[in-house]
Each structure stands twice: as structure tokens, then as C-alpha cells.
């Protein structure tokens, strides 16, 4: 395609009209996956095509060899425009090799600029050579810009569908992995409940024996040791009861003491808190500490948030728990019971923060399923609550704050509550 022929087509149809052909939003953002690779080592085809695409807001990258084309296909691209004369000698086999190594979801489109005219022995030979390339679209030269752009748009649309299939396949793999982990956790949970049930009776017997031993141990040192033993035994008993509650407590909402649930979770995580050298403080700013809720769901929400805080403070830090009333003039002037869990951990990356409640989004690498905060948000929505998060990774202000807002009408001032 000569520059005169290409530009003649451009003059007949203003560039702005091509936006309607390509359906390109004015503020479209581009990426590797939407860029077009251009390989036309002779003439002015490469410069003319790249200039046109860039004027239309399309990301375009000119390569100088088949080797460079292969490298860029591997990095990610929407399509490639290749002049036929670039595929000489073994070059077509080099391109074929990278296209054969595509994953199952991929069928990379190649727009091949060929010389027009009648069928000849040479043209038949070239047709057979390019057949293994797969998804090849032929455009005869000289060509009009409209023809090039419409063909490219069709190729890019097909490529985007391929990327969508890739994303769905990856999400399915994550989902299957998460289901396997969830099944393991379910089996572990049932086993833990069985163990907790079996050790509950011996724990009660040991508690009674320690009580009787107090009257037989007059020395001050012996009494001190017995006191420490009773404290540790009480903690083990609380952990066993906490494990059994997940399987014995009612499924319907009842009156739950929020402060007691927090204390129960701190008891459960006591060893991890000590091992990680985490300083804990709990503050209750309101007498309203009981809410109508499912105890297991509330406990799961708090356990997930405290567990995340501990994961972010593996080398020490501060964990702050606060319960209080909160008034929002911006939310229909409503009153809420606010429960805040704040840490001084590593914080959440600002780019990840907006999607932190989406499934399979995790900051823990291979050790996380990406389902904890998603499940937490689903439980909160189910109960008609709200959750908010603030986080910073700045060195002097690092940490994350989760706030759960419970409508005041779900709270009670009564001191009666279900044991946490």
C-alpha cells in the first residue's frame, strides 16, 4: 500500500467518523491486551497504520521483526497486522511456533496484508504456508482505511471475548480451589467439635479436683500455682465451649452481648496475640452492648476481622476494639451501634482497597483464599448492617480500621443476653 493510496482513503473519510465504526469512547483506557502490533518492515505501511490508530486512540506498537512480534504476543496483545513480505524464509515457521503454543482459550488474530491479483502458483504456495497460522484475516492491498479499521475492530472484539473466557477459566480454578479448602475446613470443624465434646467432661473433672486440692494445700506458693492452673484450665474450657457453640446455638436471631462476644474472640486468639506481641485494648463507650442477631454469624464476622488484623501484624503491633453509639446526619439522621476493629498492621494497598470485599481478592498471596472478607460482607448485608474500611500503607500511619454499623433499633439496653 503506497502512501498516496492510503492517504487518499483517509481524505475521503474524515478520521472522526472512524470512532463511530470502532465504537471507541473518548476516554477509553488502553492496555497490553487491547494493543495492536504492526509488522511491516518495508515501505511506509507501518508508520501510516500506527499514525492512524494512534489518532483514533488505539494503542499501537510497531515491531521490526518476527522475533520481536513473538515477544510482544507473549506479553499480551489484541491483534497483529503483518505485511506478507515480512514472512520470508523461516519467519513464517517462527510465528507459527508461538501461535501453536497458545493456551486453550487463545486464538490470536493475525491480519495479513497481501498483494491483490489473480491466483498464481506463488500465491497458492503462500496460502498453504500461512494455513497453520490459524486465525488469519487477509486484506488485499491497496486497501481503504475503513476496510482496515472494520477488520481490526472485528479481530479485537473476538480477542476480548477470548480474554473473557480466560478470566472465567481462572475464576473457576480459584472457585474450585476455594471449595476444596472450604471442604477441608468443614471436615476440620466437625472434627474439632467432636474433640471439644469429648474433652469437655474431663475438663470439668479436673476443675473440681483443683477446687478440692485448694483445701489440701495450705502453702502460699501452692495456692498461687493452683490459681494459675485454674486460669489456664478456664481458658481451655472456654475454647472448647466456643467450638461447640457453632454447632449448638440457635439459627434464629436472639439477644447477643457484643462485648462478651469480643471477649470470647480475644480468648480464642489469646495464644496468637501473645506470640505476635500484639497489644490489645478494648473500649466500650455505651451501655448499649446487646443486639438482636445470630450469635454464630456475629462471631464469624468478628473472628474474620480479628484474624485479618493478626495476619497483618506478624511482628507486633496494636489491636484496638471499640463499641459505641454513632450518629450519622448523612444517612437519614440515623443512630447506629458502632463496632470498630483497628490495627497497626501493614495496611491494604490503595489499588486493592476498592475491591477488598470481592471474592478471591486477597492480600495474603498463596496462603489466603480471598473469601474471608467477602463472606463477612455477605453476613453483614444479610443482617442489615454496614461495614466500612479505611487503610493506609504510609510508614508513619500504617494500619487498617474496619467499622461495623448496626442500626440502633436492633440494639437493646437490657442486660439479658445469650452467653457468648
Automatic annotation (TrEMBL):
The source's superkingdom equals Bacteria
Per the database record, which ranges form the Histidine kinase domain?
Answer: 194-410
Q: Which reactions appear under catalytic activity for this entry?
A: ATP + protein L-histidine = ADP + protein N-phospho-L-histidine
Transmembrane portions of the chain: none
Q: What is its EC number?
A: 2.7.13.3
One Pfam entry for this protein is HisKA
Q: Which SMART domains match?
A: HATPase_c (SM00387), HisKA (SM00388)
UniProt KW keywords: ATP-binding, Kinase, Nucleotide-binding, Phosphoprotein, Transferase, Two-component regulatory system
Give the enzyme class.
transferase
Q: Which GO terms describe its molecular function?
A: ATP binding; phosphorelay sensor kinase activity
* Annotated Gene3D superfamilies: 1.10.287.130, Histidine kinase-like ATPase, C-terminal domain
Recorded protein name is histidine kinase
This chain's source organism reads Terriglobus albidus
* Phylogenetic lineage: Bacteria, Pseudomonadati, Acidobacteriota, Terriglobia, Terriglobales
Amino acid at each position: 500500500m503506497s502512501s498516496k493510496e492510503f492517504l487518499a482513503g483517509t481524505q475521503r473519510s474524515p478520521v472522526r467518523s472512524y470512532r463511530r465504526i470502532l465504537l471507541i469512547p473518548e476516554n477509553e483506557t488502553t492496555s497490553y491486551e487491547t494493543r495492536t502490533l504492526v509488522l511491516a518492515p518495508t515501505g511506509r505501511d507501518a508508520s501510516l497504520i500506527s499514525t492512524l490508530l494512534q489518532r483514533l486512540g488505539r494503542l499501537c506498537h510497531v515491531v521490526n521483526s518476527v522475533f520481536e512480534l513473538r515477544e510482544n504476543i507473549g506479553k499480551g496483545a489484541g491483534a497483529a497486522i503483518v505485511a506478507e513480505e515480512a514472512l520470508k524464509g523461516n519467519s513464517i515457521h517462527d510465528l507459527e511456533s508461538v501461535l501453536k503454543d497458545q493456551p486453550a482459550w487463545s486464538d490470536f488474530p493475525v491480519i495479513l496484508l497481501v498483494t491483490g491479483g489473480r491466483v498464481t502458483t506463488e500465491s497458492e504456495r503462500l496460502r498453504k504456508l500461512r494455513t497453520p497460522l490459524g486465525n488469519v484475516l487477509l486484506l488485499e492491498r491497496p486497501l481503504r482505511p475503513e476496510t482496515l479499521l472494520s477488520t481490526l475492530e472485528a479481530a479485537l472484539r473476538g480477542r476480548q471475548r477470548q480474554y473473557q473466557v480466560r478470566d472465567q477459566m481462572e475464576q473457576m480454578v480459584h472457585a474450585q480451589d476455594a471449595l476444596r479448602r472450604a471442604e477441608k475446613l468443614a471436615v476440620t470443624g466437625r472434627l474439632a467439635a467432636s474433640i471439644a465434646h469429648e474433652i469437655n467432661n474431663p475438663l470439668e473433672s479436673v476443675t473440681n479436683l483443683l477446687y478440692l486440692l485448694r483445701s489440701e494445700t495450705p502453702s502460699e506458693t501452692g495456692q498461687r500455682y493452683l490459681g494459675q492452673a485454674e486460669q489456664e484450665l478456664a481458658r481451655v474450657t472456654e475454647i472448647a465451649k466456643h467450638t461447640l457453640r457453632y454447632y449448638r446455638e440457635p439459627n434464629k436471631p436472639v439477644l447477643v452481648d457484643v462485648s462478651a462476644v469480643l471477649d470470647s474472640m480475644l480468648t480464642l486468639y489469646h495464644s496468637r496475640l501473645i506470640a505476635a506481641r500484639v497489644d490489645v485494648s478494648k473500649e466500650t463507650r455505651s451501655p448499649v452492648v446487646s443486639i438482636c442477631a445470630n450469635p454464630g454469624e456475629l462471631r464469624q464476622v468478628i473472628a474474620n476481622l480479628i484474624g485479618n488484623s493478626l495476619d497483618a501484624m506478624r511482628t507486633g503491633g496494636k489491636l484496638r476494639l471499640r463499641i459505641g453509639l454513632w450518629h450519622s446526619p448523612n444517612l437519614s439522621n440515623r443512630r447506629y451501634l458502632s463496632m470498630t476493629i483497628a490495627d497497626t498492621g501493614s495496611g491494604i494497598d490503595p489499588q486493592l482497597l476498592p475491591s477488598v470485599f470481592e471474592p478471591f481478592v486477597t492480600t495474603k498471596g498463596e496462603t489466603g483464599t480471598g473469601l474471608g472478607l467477602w463472606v463477612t460482607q455477605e453476613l453483614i448485608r444479610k443482617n442489615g448492617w454496614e461495614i466500612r474500611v479505611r487503610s493506609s500503607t504510609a510508614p508513619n500511619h500504617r494500619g487498617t480500621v474496619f467499622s461495623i454499623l448496626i442500626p440502633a433499633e436492633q440494639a437493646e439496653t437490657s442486660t439479658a443476653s445469650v452467653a457468648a
